[in-house]
Amino acid sequence: MKIAVIGVGRWGVHLLRNFLAHPQVTVVAVVDPQPQRLAGVKQQFNLEENILLTTQWSALQQISELTAVAIATPATTHYTLIKQALNQGYHVLAEKPLTLDPVECLELCQLAEKRRLILMVDHTYLFHPAVQQGQTVVKAGTLGNLRYGYAARTHLGPVRQDVDALWDLAIHDIAIFNHWLSAIPLKVQAKGTVWLQTVENRELTHPPSGLADLVWVTLTYPNGFEAYIHLCWGNPDKQRRLAIVGSRGCLIFDEMSPSSPLTLLHGEFQRQGNQFLPVNQKPEVLEFTPGEPLQRVCHYFILSIIENTAPNISSGWVGTTLVKILSGLSASLHQRGETVIL
Hints:
Domain GFO/IDH/MocA-like oxidoreductase: 133-251
Domain Gfo/Idh/MocA-like oxidoreductase N-terminal: 1-123
Largest sheet: 9 strands, mixed
Distance between the termini: 39 Å
GO molecular function: nucleotide binding
Protein name: Gfo/Idh/MocA family oxidoreductase
InterPro entries: Gfo/Idh/MocA-like_OxRdtase_N (IPR000683), Gfo/Idh/MocA_Oxidoreductases (IPR051450), GFO_IDH_MocA-like_dom (IPR055170), NAD(P)-bd_dom_sf (IPR036291)
Oligomer: single chain
């Protein structure tokens, strides 16, 4: 299967690495507007001379029997590139987010279906073995009645200049909550604080006061379950932690804990008179089969093409839903925390 990788920046390099190693794939072209990046990947991966290295996307049209493209370019370019790729008959794996506009996302999904092509979004966490094992635990009812969820995604930089902390960070945790709950939020709320890039010190078109460095998110699901997410790129306390609390325990996915990234904390209340006493408390480190999530993404994309079956884990439709949620949160953020119905 002939594949071209478009964009070999920080993430595109990893896509290229995985497709070069895939036994059912031949990488025939790499596209990037920066010649030094092309030279860099040629040296890094010792690319064969017959692999086309080009700064021009249009050069792909000269490759016969090109099957698919992997797009890892800035999100602002996704709509145009993906639409052109689908119209030229290529299957598409796109870096998240699918686009920055849910209307554009919907159009691309409909185009892919019309052309009978695979459109998949690289929501890598949905292929993380710990996340997949976590969904199994939630579905099994081990936690009892689900009560609420919380997540924190913080670090000290990098500070984006094209989007705020919401668009930079939130999509990962929203994707995991949706996946674990097998549900989509009914309404959303976001409040933010701007410290670094205010309208006073920078030319910005993002209302109301600049690009938010800190964002607090609330997701409300149809059954009343609420998830709270703390996002910040100005916090030296790096966190990558997500949890769901139920009546019988708490499931925690903590990327910063290499020895136990997925933990089930058993514990519940037992009523004695008017007292509620904690009982059955014990931690349980959950085992799962290790594996690189991105490798699984790439293999799932190839398998979907071979079997001609739409991806149900991270399809374009899943990507569209996540962009719609982010757009709703962005509207709430710009309305200073007003609840937005999706």
